[in-house]
Design goal:
- The protein is of the alpha+beta class.
- Helices cover 15% and strands 34% of the residues.
- The protein has 4 helices and 23 strands.
- Strands 18-17-12-11-22-23 form a 6-stranded mixed sheet, with no helix packed on it. It has a 5-stranded mixed sheet with strand order 15-14-19-20-21, with helices on one face.
- The radius of gyration is 27 Å and the shape is globular.
- The N terminus is likely disordered.
């Protein structure tokens, strides 16, 4: 055998040895020494994931994990860092953990849960979850009007007062309740930019407006009894206004899915879908939300044809729910009305804005 061939064989052997040692070092295996020698066991070095967190009732919270886990330690704190005595219980499959507090939570009060869980392989997950006190009085809500496009041009009066006409959503309360934990989410913005409503009491038939961009003067959130504080466009005296802290563009101009949900229980309360006709199927941003609305019974199909045609939307027209008054009348007569309402694009139309009135 030539010297050149032997050199090639030696080089290949050395490479294979190095690769083998490297793979052995990173592969998920472990060794166990027994009386009969060393046994190589399959291992797992991936930490468990928390898949869901929900506030079950006035005393209990629930955590769902990707695999069976044991809760090594945990502690619940109030917003002023007071520790609350609590106990835990693990579900039958080991993937669910219930934590019960010794005292009832207060609606709208902020809490934090700190904890560490461990799976059967010893992998741990340390977590911190902020949450709001349980709200058992979330009202039945529907969206009734939405402005999807900001108005770039301004009148002389608007310039003098530094006012801007920006995106908003109008809501109608079909029942009495407290808004604590109700969250407004747009698929265009993503859940990270969702807006949590404050713990404010509303009455059946009450209209309120969520303004999705905080820009210029007069953007005052009316969380108390005085409903005449806001002066920015699309706000009305006597109608409650809330402003997000965001100054960026909000909501897709002509394509988006907007949902309202109870952030404590993750229950979806209402949904609105609109889309430009140029799309033959939902863009990736929207597809996940369509599935969620189908699971909630708000949509009966994931097909894009169910959406309202968003081509006609612009800065001079808003999308309005035409049957809002009749829906409210039905809820006043019958407390057992089906809810959430099914989305139907025929219930919506485009017209000049009527923010603050049905």
């Amino acid at each position: 055998m030539s010297t050149k061939i032997r050199g090639v064989i030696r080089f290949v052997s050395e490479v294979l040895l190095i690769v083998g040692v490297t793979l052995f070092a990173v592969l998920p295996v472990s060794c166990k020494i027994t009386e009969t020698g060393i046994h190589v066991l399959n291992g797992d070095y991936v930490c468990p994931k928390m898949e869901n967190f929900s506030v079950v009732d006035e005393r209990r919270i629930k955590l769902d994990f990707s695999e069976p886990v044991k809760l090594k330690s945990f502690e619940v704190f109030t917003e002023n860092e007071k520790s609350i005595k609590s106990e835990c219980e693990v579900g039958e499959a080991g993937k669910e953990i219930f934590i019960e507090l010794d005292e009832q939570m207060e609606i709208g009060k902020r809490y934090e849960l700190f904890g560490v869980v461990k799976d059967e392989y010893g992998n741990t997950l340390t977590f911190e979850v902020p949450f709001l006190g349980y709200n058992g009085r979330v009202p039945k809500l529907i969206m009734t009007e939405i402005q999807t496009v900001t108005v770039s041009s301004r009148t002389k009066v608007e310039v003098e007062n530094d006012w801007y006409k920006n995106e908003f959503i109008e809501f109608l309360a079909l029942t009495d309740g407290n808004l604590s934990g109700v969250e407004v989410i747009s698929s265009y913005d993503g859940e990270d930019r969702g807006f949590l409503l404050p713990p404010v009491e509303v009455k059946q038939g009450e209209i309120f407006i969520v303004h999705l961009r905080n820009k210029g003067n007069g953007c005052v959130s009316e969380t108390g009894e005085n409903l005449n504080l806001a002066t920015a466009p699309y706000s009305m005296d006597g109608v409650r206004d809330f402003w997000t802290a965001d100054e960026r563009t909000a909501i897709g101009n002509k394509t988006d899915i907007v949902i309202i949900k109870d952030s404590g229980t993750n229950e979806i309360l209402d949904g609105l879908l609109f889309c430009e006709s140029k799309y033959e199927q939902w863009p990736s941003k929207q597809s996940v939300y369509v599935k969620d609305l189908c699971e909630a019974g708000i949509c009966n199909s994931e097909e894009i044809e169910i959406a309202f045609a968003g081509d006609v939307l612009g800065n001079t027209k808003t999308l309005q729910r035409m049957n809002a008054k009749s829906v409210l009348d039905e809820f006043k007569k019958n407390k057992e009305c089906h809810y959430p309402l099914a989305f139907c694009k025929e219930d919506w139309s485009v017209d000049s804005h009527t923010a603050g009135s049905l």
